[in-house]
């Protein structure tokens, strides 16, 4: 749905951490697998609208040298989630990077932390963000709060295209994000929106 | 140990007091075996201070000595750092009138109740030589340095925590002392667009203890950034932090626990100093 007030050309969709090892992890699997079709549909709609699609992923050093301290112990003997070049680091089936999209590798929760994301967005005239992916209390929330701190004009989290370990954690985090001015529609509601 | 140290004390007077690399030129020590030319105290088994050490001095001594610390007063022997107080800072976040006082329209509902706990936490921190950092907002009258979604609060020269206003002052009972550090921030996280990380690293700080308000925003963002910045040990004191409701507070404490943050009551945290 497009009309003269749409700002899709000033909008980017951030698809966060939708990778095999995270979506399939024991902690998240139950809720994360469920959102894969919704994420795919959001990406498809975003492309139709001419929204800039950015795939935010982790591609972790096999020795864990670029992962948070509290997770380093997982990266011994070449084990560990989302290791660079591994199948676990690839996007889940159903999600595919296309030519006009952008891939951004991050090493911490927030897609803005120690990355050039802000420069990429500003350089493309983007000041509105839509966020989907996993997981709500960590990478989603940190990215969103950083976006608020960086004065992005309009930030949307699609509630049924994001997930946490439990519905309670998910809802509590959605509520906290609403309280700092973030929009939290379902995909259906966003489909009918102009923002 | 006390007997041995007092015996050493009596043997010390023949050695002169000397200054060494502390920032305080008035802090002089004499050491059982003398101080090497590079001001290295690490070999000393007993140290006698000429004057009462401040919190900064105790921190310096803990970082440079090899024996256990005690609270030192004039003439006492000082022992050092097998505690990590010298590597720890306490961040006291946004405990300002406009966010705490019950008559303020921008108050956080749970904030007033934690003021006594914050006062106590700061007192305990100082007692143990933990660096106290006061993190505050001091905003521009036109709101040019506040988040977009709050700008509407800043019209006609009024708004929360304006620079030089009474509302931006720390609540009664909280006082910045010599040796503390004050950091002004403009966003949720104390690390966001500030020099906090550099200040902490240059003081050799690896561990953080966080108190203040409000749990889902400034506390949480600071804590998550601290974890992202690889601070070794981050603690949130659960009854010296607050949110608008207990439910919001607890949900956020749980999320922080899930990323390796230690979440302790004030009483529990104080017991760590008795070990």
TrEMBL record, chain A:
InterPro entries: Isochorismatase-like_dom (IPR000868), Isochorismatase-like_sf (IPR036380). SUPFAM superfamilies: Isochorismatase-like hydrolases. Pfam families: Isochorismatase. Residues 11-184 form the Isochorismatase-like domain. Belongs to the isochorismatase family. This is Peroxyureidoacrylate/ureidoacrylate amidohydrolase RutB. It comes from Rhynchospora pubera.
TrEMBL record, chain B:
Residues 88-265 form the Isochorismatase-like domain. The lineage of its organism: Eukaryota, Viridiplantae, Streptophyta, Embryophyta, Tracheophyta. PANTHER family: OS02G0276400 PROTEIN. Belongs to the isochorismatase family. InterPro entries: Isochorismatase-like_dom, Isochorismatase-like_sf. This is Peroxyureidoacrylate/ureidoacrylate amidohydrolase RutB.
């Amino acid at each position: 749905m497009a009309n003269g007030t749409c700002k899709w050309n000033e909008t980017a969709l951030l698809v966060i951490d939708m990778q095999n090892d995270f979506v399939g992890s024991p902690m998240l699997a139950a809720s994360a697998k469920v959102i894969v079709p919704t994420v795919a549909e959001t990406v498809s709609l975003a492309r139709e609208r001419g929204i800039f699609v950015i795939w935010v992923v982790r591609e972790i050093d096999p020795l864990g040298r670029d992962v948070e301290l509290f997770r380093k112990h997982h990266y011994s003997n070449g084990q560990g989630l989302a290791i660079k070049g591994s199948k676990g680091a690839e996007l889940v089936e159903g999600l595919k990077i296309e030519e006009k999209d952008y891939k951004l590798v991050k090493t911490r929760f927030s897609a803005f932390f120690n990355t050039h994301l802000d420069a990429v967005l500003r350089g493309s005239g983007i000041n509105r963000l839509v966020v989907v992916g996993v997981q709500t209390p960590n990478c989603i929330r940190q990215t969103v709060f950083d976006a608020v701190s960086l004065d992005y004009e309009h930030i949307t989290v699609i509630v049924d295209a994001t997930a946490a370990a439990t519905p309670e954690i998910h809802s509590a985090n959605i509520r906290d994000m609403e309280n700092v001015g973030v929009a939290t529609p379902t995909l259906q509601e966003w489909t009918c929106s102009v923002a | 140990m006390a007997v041995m140290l007092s015996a050493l004390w009596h043997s010390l007077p023949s050695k002169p007091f000397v200054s060494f690399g502390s920032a305080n030129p008035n802090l002089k020590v004499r050491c059982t075996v003398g101080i090497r030319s590079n001001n290295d105290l690490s070999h000393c088994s007993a140290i006698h201070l000429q004057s009462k050490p401040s919190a900064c001095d105790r921190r310096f001594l803990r970082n440079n000595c090899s024996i256990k610390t005690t609270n030192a007063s004039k003439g006492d022997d000082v022992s050092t750092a097998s505690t990590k107080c010298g590597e720890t800072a306490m961040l006291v976040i946004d405990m300002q009138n406009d966010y705490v006082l019950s008559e303020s329209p921008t108050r956080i509902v749970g904030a007033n109740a934690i003021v006594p706990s914050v006062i106590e936490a700061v007192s305990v921190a100082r007692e143990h030589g933990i660096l106290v950092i006061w993190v505050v907002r001091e905003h521009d009258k036109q709101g040019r340095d506040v988040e977009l979604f709050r700008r509407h609060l800043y019209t006609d020269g009024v708004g929360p925590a304006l620079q030089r206003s009474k509302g931006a002052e720390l609540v009664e009972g909280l006082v910045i002392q010599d040796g503390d550090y004050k950091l002004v921030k403009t966003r949720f996280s104390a690390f966001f667009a500030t020099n906090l990380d550099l200040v902490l690293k240059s003081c050799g700080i690896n561990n953080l203890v966080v108190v203040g308000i409000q749990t889902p925003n400034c506390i949480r963002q600071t804590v998550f950034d601290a974890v992202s910045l690889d601070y070794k040990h981050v603690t949130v004191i659960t009854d010296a932090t607050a949110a608008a409701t207990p439910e919001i507070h607890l949900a956020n404490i749980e999320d922080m626990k899930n990323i390796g943050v230690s979440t302790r009551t004030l009483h529990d945290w104080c017991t760590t100093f008795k070990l």
